[in-house]
Amino acid sequence: PLSEDEIRAHTLVVISCIENKREVYAVETIANKQIDRTFMFDKNGEFPSDAGVIPTAVRNFFNILEAQSAEYSMKVTHLELYNEEITDLFAPEECSKFIEDKSKKPIALMEDGKGGVLVRGLEEEIVRTVNEIYKILEK
Questions:
Q1: For the Kinesin motor domain, which residue ranges apply (predicted)?
Q2: What does DSSP assign to residue 29?
C-alpha cells in the first residue's frame, strides 16, 4: 500500500491485488506509454513447468538429490530485504524486526570469509519434500 506521503503526493498506484482471482495487476509507464500486466498466483500448491525461480530451484534441488540417492537434510529460511532492513518472514510479525528474546542474536548480514554473504539470526524450518517448501511459500 501507498505510504501517507505517497497519498499526499497523489502517487499513482502501480501494483494492486485481486485476491479472489489470485492475481497481481501491475501498471508500468515506459516512454509515456502505459503497459498493464497481470500475474497469476500459482493455485492448489502445484507449480506449472513455467513457474518462477524459487519453485523451479526447489524442484531442481530435490530432483538432483533424489537422483543421487543422497542422504540429506535441508533447512529453509525466508527473508525480505527492503530499504536496507532485513525482515525474517518466518518470525512472528511482532518479533520479526525487534528481537525481544535476549538469548537470540539479532538478524545481521555478515561475510562468510569466502567472498560470500550470510544472514545470521533467521528462523529456520526443516523440510523433507518439495511440497513442504511449497506450503511454506503459500503461507
A1: 1-139
A2: E
